């Protein structure tokens, strides 16, 4: 299969350095049906397709949970548009590996 990925641009934000069970990601959970080797880290999501179609299902953190991870941010943009992820792509220089 082809390795696809998308970056979590919130990785660039300052983090508080406290170790937590989940990655300090925009996403609370991610699953990909029709894919193998799914990886969800603070830097983004990578997966290897098993066929012609995949289905991406995700949930995001609440605004307060998100800023709990990123407590050093001076303003919380809870009701404003926010550039959080890139498009799903394969083979780009910035792609994550599967």
Structure description:
- The chain is mainly beta and 98 residues long.
- Helix content is 7%, strand content 32%.
- It contains 1 helix and 5 strands, in the order βββββα.
- A 3-stranded antiparallel β-sheet has the order 1-4-3, with no helix packed on it. The chain has a two-stranded antiparallel ribbon with strand order 2-5.
- A hairpin with a 2-residue loop joins β3 and β4.
- The longest helix is centred in the last third of the chain and has 7 residues.
- It starts with a strand and ends in a 29-residue tail after the last helix.
- The mean pLDDT is 85.
Short structural description:
The protein is mainly beta and 98 residues long. 7% of the residues lie in helices and 32% in strands.
SSE arrangement:
Layout lengths: L2 E5 L19 E7 L1 E7 L2 E6 L5 E6 L2 H7 L29
Antiparallel strand pairs: 1-4, 2-5, 3-4
Any key phrases for this structure?
single chain; 98 residues; mainly beta; three-stranded antiparallel β-sheet; two-stranded antiparallel sheet; 1 helix
Approximate strand percentage: 25-35%
Low-confidence stretches: none
Number of helices: 1
Q: If strands are numbered along the chain, what order do they take across the biggest sheet?
A: 1-4-3
Q: Average pLDDT, to the nearest integer?
A: 85
Structural class: mainly beta
Categorize the overall geometry.
elongated
Please, what is the oligomeric state? single chain
Terminal Cα span:
10 Å
Radius of gyration, whole Å? 14 Å
**Topology as H/E string?**
EEEEEH
Proportion of helical residues: under 10%
Profile the largest sheet: 3 strands, antiparallel
Count all strands and give the number.
5
């Amino acid at each position: 299969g082809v390795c696809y990925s998308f970056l979590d641009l919130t990785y660039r934000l300052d983090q508080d350095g406290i170790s937590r069970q989940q990655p300090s990601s925009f996403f609370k959970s991610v699953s990909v049906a029709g894919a193998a080797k799914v990886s969800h880290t603070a830097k983004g999501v990578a997966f290897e397709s098993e066929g012609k179609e995949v289905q991406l299902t995700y949930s995001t953190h609440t605004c307060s949970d998100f800023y709990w991870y990123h407590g050093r941010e001076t303003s919380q943009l809870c009701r404003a548009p926010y550039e959080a992820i890139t498009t799903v792509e394969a083979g780009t220089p910035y792609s994550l590996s599967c």
